[in-house]
């Protein structure tokens, strides 16, 4: 039987789990959800409660799920996978694109053409390598429906990480992270965390190659 | 010779068709590769001392598909170039010229001579050019050997264009951050947005080599306007000029003519003007008494007060009534048209005697703008240009 690669033996091979703290999430308002009327019923398990008709997200759960997501992203980066950042929240478009640029990965924060994944040969004029991981900084599009990329990634078995707010459907996302996706400061924090995780994965890859 | 000429005609038609097609289609090769994944080269025995199989480099399916297409294109172009060179030699022989020194200009002349065309559209006439000019150029590979795209916005479908939008927005954010730190200490002047002419949609399309929809172009315009009107835009002028054209004041500047001296030593300026079918030449002498002569007569040449006022209007604006001598020669047209022609000629002449501020006054008064209006043509089934025959209900 083949020996399991050593990166799978350690729970935190890249040291990304310590990047997330409840305090830092609280300070940027990651716990603030939408009004109770907008709540998606499948988000109920992740809520701490409500206050003045506002849903509050349980940051203890968020922390654990964010750590898992960051670890996964780092693993994908370690193996040279193509990571696509997607978001249709125009206010934070620049932040997401810059994050992708800074960690050497890809971004698609513009109008998502139907068939970008399922009909990629026509859209990109030839056979193209599709992403190995899609990170949705906002899981909804500009008309408050689930982003087409989330559904298409699920169809093509591409793993997804998604910041799910209280009005989002977390079911078909591989690594959902219940958190506020509307505050720009919070988005900045999440992007920073993803960037550090991806860069950590790439750094480790370089180091391990040198050792070999 | 007839066979060779027939061959050349065939090549010309092919080039014509290829050129017209390439104008409509961009480089669109569709492949039905459905499965994503990697293609691994078969293991190679290196024939080494150790006799160990050398693991070949993995090429992604995307890259393999691209390489196949590139090879197909290169083979095709090679074939076309050979045909072109051979055809060129045939053509030289037909014309009785030296095949080795037959340039493209000679080719064009020969084709026009041998295959004369009465077609109006030049693009429809027989063409015989090098294949690189006829067939559309291939886009370089968008990704590396491992299939990873080169551009970070590849998956948007228009990486070059969206990168421009990103850069403009990033520049704006940068300037805003600087403005926050320097709050209250900013002394530099804002940029004049009228002086920056944004790139047109077609210019942007050629720059990015991508098609741009009108909505996307509107986004570009809005972003550029926001950047140009930023208080600190002057610091980003070098960047702004990449996607806009800076207009010189030269288009607004008036050319001052240097005064000439006549036989008495008096300085004068001569200027021309026209209105409808009238043509006027006005000679203005500075430091005069206000003598005005039109075709040898004084102001009474114009019996109407309105026409006389037209003549005096430029002088009123720059306050030179009674201070300059004017001599006009005017011909053709009616009296009102002649007065208008003299007016603009006089205004143009006065620009050289007067300060920049007064030139501005003349421009604001509309005295430096030629009046392009002409008599409207009479239309059929109507008695005049606008007058209609009485409308009857039944």
Automatic annotation (TrEMBL), chain A:
Q: Where is the signal peptide?
A: none
An annotated GO cellular component: mitochondrial small ribosomal subunit
Could you give a single Gene Ontology term from the biological process aspect? translation
Q: Tell me the domain of life.
A: Eukaryota
Q: What is its main location?
A: mitochondrion
Do you know which SUPFAM superfamilies this protein is assigned to?
Ribosomal protein S2
Example GO molecular function: structural constituent of ribosome
| Keyword Ribosomal protein attached | yes
Annotated localization? Mitochondrion
Q: Which UniProt keywords apply?
A: Mitochondrion, Ribonucleoprotein, Ribosomal protein
Q: Which Gene3D superfamilies does this UniProt record tie to the protein? A: Glucose-6-phosphate isomerase like protein, domain 1 (3.40.50.10490)
- Role this protein plays: Required for mitoribosome formation and stability, and mitochondrial translation.
Cite the PANTHER family for this sequence: 30S RIBOSOMAL PROTEIN S2 PROKARYOTIC AND ORGANELLAR, SMALL RIBOSOMAL SUBUNIT PROTEIN US2M
Q: Which family does it belong to?
A: Belongs to the universal ribosomal protein uS2 family.
What protein am I looking at? Small ribosomal subunit protein uS2m
**What species is given as this protein's source?**
Lottia gigantea
Automatic annotation (TrEMBL), chain B:
InterPro entries of this UniProt entry? Ribosomal_Su5_D2-typ_SF, Ribosomal_uS9, Ribsml_uS5_D2-typ_fold_subgr
Q: What is this protein called?
A: Small ribosomal subunit protein uS9m
Give the protein family: Belongs to the universal ribosomal protein uS9 family.
Disordered: annotated segments:
368-394
Any matching Pfam family = Ribosomal_S9
Q: Does the keyword Ribosomal protein apply?
A: yes
Provide the protein's localization: Mitochondrion
Its GO biological process annotations read:
translation
Native source organism of the sequence: Lottia gigantea
Record-level Gene Ontology MF annotations:
RNA binding; structural constituent of ribosome
* Positions of transmembrane segments: none
Please tell me whether the keyword Metal-binding is annotated for this protein.
no
């Amino acid at each position: 039987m083949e020996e399991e690669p050593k990166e799978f033996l350690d729970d935190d091979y890249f040291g990304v789990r310590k990047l997330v703290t409840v305090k830092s999430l609280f300070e940027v308002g990651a716990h603030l959800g939408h009004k109770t009327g907008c709540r998606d019923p499948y988000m109920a398990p992740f809520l701490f409660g409500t206050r003045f008709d506002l849903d509050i997200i349980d940051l203890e759960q968020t922390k654990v799920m964010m750590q898992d997501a960051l670890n996964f992203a780092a693993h994908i980066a370690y193996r040279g996978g193509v990571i696509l950042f997607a978001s249709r929240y125009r206010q934070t478009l620049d932040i997401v694109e810059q994050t992708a640029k800074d960690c050497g990965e890809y971004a698609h924060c513009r109008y998502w053409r139907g068939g970008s994944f399922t009909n990629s040969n026509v859209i990109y004029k030839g056979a193209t390598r599709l992403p190995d991981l899609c990170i949705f900084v906002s899981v909804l599009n500009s008309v408050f429906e689930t982003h087409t990329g989330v559904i298409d990634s699920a169809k093509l078995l591409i793993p997804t990480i998604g910041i799910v707010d209280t009005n989002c459907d977390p079911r078909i996302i591989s690594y959902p992270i219940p958190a506020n996706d509307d505050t720009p400061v919070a988005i900045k924090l999440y992007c920073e965390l993803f960037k550090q995780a991806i860069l950590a994965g790439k750094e480790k890859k370089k180091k391990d190659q040198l050792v070999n | 010779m007839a066979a060779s000429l027939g061959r050349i005609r065939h090549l010309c038609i092919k080039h014509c068709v290829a050129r017209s097609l390439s104008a409509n289609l961009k480089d669109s090769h569709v492949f039905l590769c459905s499965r994503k994944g990697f293609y691994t080269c078969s293991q190679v025995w290196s024939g080494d001392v150790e006799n160990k199989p050398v693991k070949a480099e993995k090429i992604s399916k995307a890259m393999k598909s691209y390489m196949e297409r590139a090879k197909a294109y290169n083979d095709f172009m090679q074939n076309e170039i050979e045909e072109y060179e051979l055809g060129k030699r045939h053509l030289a022989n037909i014309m009785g010229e030296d095949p080795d020194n037959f340039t493209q200009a000679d080719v064009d002349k020969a084709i026009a001579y041998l295959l004369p065309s009465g077609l109006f559209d030049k693009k429809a006439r027989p063409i015989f050019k090098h294949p690189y000019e006829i067939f559309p150029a291939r886009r370089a590979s968008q990704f590396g050997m491992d299939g990873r795209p080169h551009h970070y916005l590849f998956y948007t479908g228009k990486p070059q264009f969206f990168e421009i939008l990103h850069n403009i927005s990033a520049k704006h954010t940068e300037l805003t951050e600087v403005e926050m730190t320097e709050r209250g200490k900013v002394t530099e002047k804002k940029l004049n947005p009228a002086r920056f002419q944004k790139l047109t949609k077609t210019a942007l399309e050629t720059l990015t080599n991508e098609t741009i929809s009108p909505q996307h172009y509107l986004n570009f315009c809005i972003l550029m306007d926001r950047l140009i009107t930023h208080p600190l835009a002057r610091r980003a002028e070098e960047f702004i000029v990449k996607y806009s054209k800076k207009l010189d004041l030269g288009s607004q500047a008036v050319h001052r003519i240097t005064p000439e001296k006549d036989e008495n030593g008096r300085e004068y300026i001569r200027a021309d003007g026209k209105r409808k079918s009238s043509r006027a030449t006005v000679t203005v002498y500075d430091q005069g008494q206000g003598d005005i002569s039109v075709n040898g007569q004084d102001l009474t040449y114009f019996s109407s007060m309105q026409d006389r006022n037209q003549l005096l209007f430029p002088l009123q604006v720059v306050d030179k009534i009674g201070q300059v001598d004017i001599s006009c020669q005017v011909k053709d047209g009616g009296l009102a048209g002649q007065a208008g022609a003299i007016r603009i000629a006089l205004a143009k002449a006065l620009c050289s005697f007067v300060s920049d501020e007064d030139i501005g006054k003349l421009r604001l008064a509309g005295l430096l703008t030629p009046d392009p209006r002409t008599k409207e043509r009479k239309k059929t089934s109507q008695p005049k240009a606008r007058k209609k025959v009485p409308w009857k209900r039944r």
